[in-house]
Amino acid sequence: MDDSVSWEQQTVGAGLPRARRRGATGAVSYRTVSVRAATTGLARVVEAAVVLLHRYTGETDVVLGCGRDGALTPVRVAVRADQPVTELEIPALPEDADLIAVQGDTLRITVTVVGITLTARADVFDSAAVRMYARHLGNVLAASREATVETVPLLDEAETELALNGWNDTAAPLDQEFFHEAVARIAQERPDATAIVHGDQRVTFGQLDSWANSMARYLAAEGLTVGGRVGVCFERGVASVVTQLAAFRLGATAVLLDPEYPRDRLTYMLADAEVVAVVTRTGLEDKVANAPKTVLYDVARWANAADTAVSIPVTGDDVCHIAYTSGSTGVPKAVTLRHGPMRSLIHALIDECGIDGDSRGTWLSSPGFGLVEVDPFPVLAAGGAVHIPDEETVASPTRLREWLLSEQITHSLLLTAMAERLWTMDWPADTPLRTMRVAGERVRSWPSGALPFDVINVYGAAEVAVVSTANLSAIARRLDGEQLAELLPPVGKPITNVRTYVFDSKLRPVPVGVLGELYVSGAYLQPSYLKARNGGPLKFVYNPVDGDPNAILYRTGDVARYWPDGQVEIVGRTDSEVKVRGYRVHLGEIESLIAAQPGVRQTAVLAREDDGEVRLVAYIEPDPGAPAQVREVRRVLRDKLPKYMRPAAYVVGDLPTTANGKIDRDKLPAPPPSRPELDTAFVEPRDEQERVIAEIWRSVLGLDEIGVLDDFFELGGDSLRAVRVVDALRDNGFQVELNDLLSASSVAAVSRVVERTALERSAPTTYPVLTHDAASRFEPHPLNQSQQALWIGRGDAMDFGDVGCHGYFEYEHPNLDVERFRRAWQALLYRHDQLRMIVLPTGEQLVLSELPGDGLTVVDLSGHTPEEAERLVTETREFMSHHVTPSDTWPLNDIRLTRLPGGRTRLHFGLDMLVTDAWSIYQVIFPDLIDLYETDAPLAPLEITFRDYEAGKAAVQADSVEYERAKQYWLGRLPTLPAAPDLPMVHNPRTKPKFDRREHALSPQRWQQLTARAKEGGVTQSTVLMAVFAEVLRTWAKNERFTVNFPISDRMPLHPQVDQLIGDFTNTMLVAVEKVDGTFAERARDIQEQLWRDLAHRHYNGVDVLRELARRDGGSLRPAMPIVVTSLLGHPARRQTSSFGAETYGISQTPQVTLDFQIREIAGVLHMKWDFLDSLFPDGMIDAMFDAYTGLLDRLVDDPVAWRQERFDLIPPAQREQWERVNDTATEVPYVLMHEVVAEIAVKNPDAPAVIATDRTVSYGELHSRANQIGRRLRELGARPNALVAIVMDRGWEQLVAVYGILTAGSGYLPLDATAPMDRRHALLENGEIEIVLTQRHIAERDPWPDGVRVLVVDRDFDDVDDSPLPSAQEPTDLAYVIYTSGSTGMPKGVMVDHRAAANHVYDINKRFGIGPSDRGIMTAGLHFDMSIYDVFGIPTAGGALVLPAPSSSPDPDHWADLVREHKVTIWGAVPALIETVVTRIETTGGAPLDSLRYQVLAGDWIPLTLPDRLRAVAPNVAVIGSGGPTETINWSIIFEIGEIDKDWVSIPYGRPLNNQRYHILDEHRRPRPQWATGEMVVGSPIGLAQGYWRDPERTAAKFFRLPGTGERVYATGDLGRLLPDGNIEILGRDDFQVKINGYRVELGEIESTLARHPAVDAAVVVAPASAGGGRRLTAFVVPSSELEVADLTAFLSERLPSYLVPADIRLLDELPLTRNVKVDRLALTALAERHEVDAVDDGEATPLEQVVAEFYALVLELEEVGLDSNFFQFGGDSLRGTRLAGQLTEVLGVDVGLRAVLTRTTPRELSAAIVAEPETGPLATAMAVALMELSDGVLADSDAA
Questions:
Q1: What residues make up the domain containing 1701?
Q2: H or E stretch covering 1652
Q3: Domain Carrier spans what residues (predicted)?
């Protein structure tokens, strides 16, 4: 038994029908039912519950929760089936217990004196299940306790009668006509009716009957007699049917043999069946060479026999077939099939499926399989026609679908795997198909209820033929989406004259939903194995059911359960039941769940024994076009299965199969040692301790590598392996218990446990007691680290600075005594030195011994009207709440009293955090002030001051082991410490940000409930509130692992009065939130463990950690950790502030903080406040986040199950609904082939121009004629569907002719760039498996071609070919083209696109823009570029004309513009850079406008913000359209009509999806993102996606997948984007288009768009190459349109962007370099920028100013010297040293050198250049530097001494 499984995790009644899935959102509701039983003691009810749960689940170790609400204790009871109930050992139960909880408290039994009730969660159990539980519990309680557990009756009489007889009322008269008799009758009645169609062969019933008679007479002459056996060894076809009919008419048996079987297997079958002869064809004789006699069907001697009727009577018990199935011994098992059951199943299927004489059926199953009776025979028996496809069609879902449609099939039978793939395809509404029968493996997914045909599940076995059927389509239409996700497809109800039973081991019916074994009885059921050695008696038992006329039951071996309506559902096999850690597990149940997941083609689960331990391994064969994601499969199984049923390992790949197509489980490989696919990102060990622990895990689990955040159990661990891990850890000296590993299940978590245990066992630290230093009391002393950070942050050097760190508090007192308050305030000022503190310019603090006053301001508004008084108070609030107080003048605090009308007084406290921390405010300042006011008497004197404390702390830490250990801990964590939450932000807000507040409160009752839940979950109050905050941050942040700033008041116990002091004792804990998997409770516990570990190392101040982090980050100006959680819980205030009156307002502000979450408890009420910089975040985002926070908090209060939930959907419902509307793009698309559309236009308008080239015009008639010529010749040369023919040409009319010629041939075209290097072209020809290339004369003769490639010239090699139309050889789902795009591995990817996807694209654009025959397009894109797709297909299929410019090696904007004017081009699709060259050319030359242009589609690259308006100026009638989409989404998949350019835009919005395209913004776990949050753009479409990558299944699997939850096939673009509130998408580029500069994540497009707004800028591109110092620097390349200076651009940017976004390097170019596809060549520009960086490293002798600056660098950094290019931060600089450097340079040079300049210009050379660049102060600084250098060297030395 696995001790890790608790009562909360144990699944009870698994699989019972439920109202909806677990974890459903919304309010939690419950169903309560009374149990009909006499009131009894709790122990008896526990006993009955144990019996009931054992009978439901079979578990031998039942665990319950017992106690009272909110306090449940685990109760474990061992139970055996044969054990008397009286012998169950019920342990002692908790006192006063009245509650039994089951399955995570979703099911409760309450016992009171009034009675027994059963309560269940409505989102887990439906009402029928709850009533059944209550009924069965009552039956157990009423039964005798002397009975054994297995004999206690559960079902009442009504339930028993329903199961045995009610659902088995199937008796009906038998149709007496056998199959072969029906065929003979139809041949007499309708001899000319078609019976079989196989390729070109069409056989009538008359012919079939005649041939069967001839074959029968021939076989009789060869010795076949009644009861004899003849082998039938054919592929599917007429010969097999003829031979089988002949055998039936002789009263003989047909032995079915598949010619695909190995010869040895066939030899065994022939001998085992003792055949008289084998009928086969020429070519197969060798397969059956050991047969006694061989009859060759195609030699036709048998055909000479008489065809008069042969009809020897048979009975229902006579054997018609012998079919072989796999046997458990490894030897094939021969099953005898009889005429009676075959007759019954045929007539049952005819009735069930509505098969008649007009039906068209199929034969698709193996010819050696007994399914022949289910597949073609019912159709023939009804007089319908059976159609047989070729083998390629049978094997291909796409081809089979097209064949079913073309043959107008009405009824078909398919094996499960093929059926499940077919019904997910698109089917026309008028599909002839009426029923699709499914047989073979279990059906594990639901067909859509919207299919135009019914899917019928046919269940049976070789021994009993067809048992039951289920119309899955009809059932699916009755179920909602959640039920379809919860339930597995059933096998239905028994057919006529068959009865089914689900029995337990005692052959008793089981309750609805409970697992049992399926038994079958029927009229012709009897032992059916050919020989007793095959185990016949084991499968057949005597029937115990009264009223069943059949004496024998067939034991199917299938594990099944009833639905409430009597439908039977199969979940697995009894022989697949295994024991795992003491639990019974049905492997089939796991397989069914896995198989139901999107992207799973088939699956198997094995229980493998490794090192004596059993573990489950899942094998998944993925859908190659969109494979399953293992981590998503894991998540579903975690949600639906208990731990012991979850596979420990997963193996993905093709599964081996047996000869009859079933999974060959014996050949399934052992799982590989590689790390599995997990929800958690891989993180390497970060220190030696983690490395040792990881190595132990790796060894025990047998894996190559383990990440420190990986979950032990997700890696395949279990309780047995956990014991081995714990033993190994102890051997290495780590003190770890087994429970530690079960709760702390990652390497990082175990490492924390080890460290905590060691600290707990160490001796406590003792500290010396402080004494007061009266002599130094009023001497300056240093600011501590926290004060330094706040002091520096008050200035504007740091981002989010220029803010005074203070809290503003406002109260209203009804009758305050102002003078008494003044006396109290004065006493407080002289009691606490820090209230009299100022900060000197040197960065030291000074306590003033005397004050100029008390700093208290009193304003009397009592004589004003209430309205006027309130207005003035509001003005005071606005000033005080956001005021930055000068730190070098007293008072830093601002205390005001406002006397109001009516005797009221408003108290205003503006408290500066340089003076005090939050703890001091609530624990000292306010309580002391209240005491002083109320008593009007002095308080006990303080013996020490804050200065004493700081000096004492410094002395203690100087030689402290704890300090050194903490320092090493934090410095060791820095390299892997996650960044702060990367929330969406406004980089350049319209207004200066100021703090705003959102607040929420929990009532005392709800706060107590949450506290109790947190205690149950093992976390503190602060931790649970922080954990909820983390869930919200993770939903909106770009990074899922992050660090939160958690300040604490850290007061070392150096004196008994330390807690009575005022001061800034703040220490910053940087708490890493790293666990992203598991449940909420587990994630919360992980945060707590990390926080405790951090607190144990708090002696190294967090500010020092942040400085080191900034230094390593190159001197970031951006706050490293601006998201703060400030919790004052656990420290109740000595006096409540309510003594000041009611709180009327409050807000805080802190420099370098963007969001501060503050937590306090006041009078039992939990107060939560978010203070945030308002305009720094997108509109509405903080409100959405805050609503999500409070909503999740409420769920955790109300719903205990939420704590065990893995994921929360925190996206606002309105946002989800809006995006569903945007994505509602479904549109009907004609099911066409592209060349056929053009052919139709050619017939209607043959003379209309199709292609207008510079040298000739090609009409539609000529295009069609030449396409037919090319197509015919190519087809003769072997062109075929889904093969490729290459096009290697320069731009010209021949390209269009080649495209449509290749499509006419049936192949897809592969366009290659004729100017590409020869080696590249040859490599692509080889990869594309090209046998034929179409080209032009000059190219054919220019270069050598690979061996084996035939090169044909379009205008030379097809002139003499017949040009008459060709019938199409392909279907719309076959390839139209493959285009190669660049690949990250260096090998291009061939994107495969079919006709249907191309049609979806062009029909949408043509309809959207109204494109028709009068339109003209122009093709400026290369044929090898996907931008050409609309040109090639869109214009021709609309009947318009495509204009082709002359081929050119470089852009020719004048030529293109001339063509637009000359041919009146109306639509043009091109990349922005190309159009920009045209616009610029017209602007500079004054060319004529492009009046004809109606639509300009800009796609394929970023659109400059200025381009649309410039384009409209030269093309006055144009609509400018922004579009895009990867090649994999067919050229354009998203669209945005560009109107007026919004001045706040950073880039042109990407837009909304086109028809049949759906865009999703997903996180790395494929979960949707809310508005504004960055995620990967993923595109889904049922028809508008590429099929994948040519011959590259690995990259296909990496980019195409099924979306979790919906199963939608999608493509991962790799581009980042975000949803905007207006329903559009904003594209953010690829992740590599974002860089880090000085700690900022910089989007280069934002800088580019701002540059483009400059009136003298034509184009701009920004790159960020790595600098010589290792960081990155921005370089801007600008193409000016007129006279332009770099300084002007710098000033322009500085006015509009924050400084970190202003490039230090701006260069002017004449033009931007372009790639072959006419996109901006960013790689070339990056290389250019890097070259300049290298050149700039050493540029000669230093100037005097550079020498002075370098000297002071060395002085501050305590180095002997530094170079001009030495980076300040890389040599140990930080913000504090930067402050000193700025101050010293300001003093020496006589000019203001700001801290921001020091922190951004990080080398002496850069800083000197910045100083010189200042026009007003630069000359003075230069002159001072020259003067200094002329003086003696002692000047700088004196500065050093000073």
A1: 1638-1735
A2: helix 1644-1652
A3: 684-758, 1740-1815
Residue with tokens 């050194």: 964
Q: What is the DSSP letter of 1720?
A: B
Confirm if 1565 and 590 have CB atoms less than 8 A apart.
Answer: no
> Do the Cβ atoms of 1039 and 978 come closer than 8 Å?
yes
Same domain, 798 and 757: no
pLDDT attached to residue 1499: 93
Read off the CATH number of the domain in which 1120 is found. Answer: 3.30.559.30
DSSP 700-736: HHT-S---TT--TTTTT--HHHHHHHHHHHHHTT---
Same domain, 924 and 810: yes
Tell me which of 527-536, 1328-1337, 1520-1529 is least confident.
527-536
701 versus 580: which is more confidently predicted? 701
Same domain, 1021 and 1153: yes
- Contact residues for 1486 (Cβ-Cβ < 8 A; gap 6+): none
Q: What span, in angstroms and rounded, lies between the C-alpha atoms of 1546 and 1701? A: 13
1089 and 1155, same structural domain?
yes
Q: Which of 1160, 1185, 1219 is the last residue of a domain?
A: 1219
1431 within a domain of the structure (yes/no): no
DSSP state of 288: G
CB 1069 within 8 A of CB 1098: yes
> How long, in residues, is the chain?
1842
> How far is it, in rounded angstroms, from Cα 633 to Cα 595?
9
Is residue 1625, in this structure, part of any structural domain at all?
no
One domain, residues 38 and 108 = yes
Whether residue 1179 is found in the same domain as residue 1262: no
Retrieve residue 1420's tokens.
């400026």
Q: State the total domains in the chain.
A: 10
pLDDT digits (tens, 9 = 90+) for 382-440: 999 999 999 888 877 888 999 999 999 999 999 887 898 899 888 998 999 999 999 88
CA angle 301, 302, 308 (to 5 degrees): 135
pLDDT at site 61: 83
Distance CA 870, CA 900 (A): 8
What was the pLDDT predicted at 1737?
39
Calculate the average pLDDT of the chain: 87
SS (H, E, C) 72-124: EEEEEEECCCCCEHHHCCCCCCCCCCCEEEECCCCEEEEECCCCEEEEEECCC
* Same structural domain, 1723 and 1784: no
The string of pLDDT tens digits covering residues 1560-1604 is 999 988 999 999 999 999 999 999 999 999 999 889 988 999 998
Strand 1332-1335 vs strand 294-296: parallel, antiparallel, or unpaired?
unpaired
Is pLDDT at 997 greater than 60 in this prediction?
yes
Q: Residues 1787-1816: what's their mean pLDDT?
A: 82
Residues 1744-1783 pLDDT 10s: 888 888 888 888 888 888 888 887 776 777 767 877 888 7
Residue 1698 scores a pLDDT above 80: no
Residue 1606 pLDDT > 90: no
**Together in a domain, 1242 and 1213:** no
User: Is 1569 within the bounds of a domain?
Assistant: no
DSSP 1487-1512: PPP-TT--EEEE-SS---TTHHHHHH
Kindly report, residue by residue over 636-659, the tens digit of the pLDDT. 888 777 777 889 899 999 999 876
Three-state DSSP class for residue 1147: strand
Residue type, 1483: E
What CATH number is attached to the domain comprising 553?
Answer: 2.30.38.10
Task: Specify the residue for token string 């006096």.
Answer: 1135
Asked if residue 522 lies in contact with residue 461, where contact means CB atoms within 8 angstroms, the answer is no
Residue 101 counted as domain residue: yes
What are the Cα distances from residue 880, in Å, to 806, 1145, 1151, 1265, 1633?
10, 12, 16, 85, 43
Tokens 């490599």 correspond to: 1323
- The encoded tokens of residue 1707 equal 């260069």
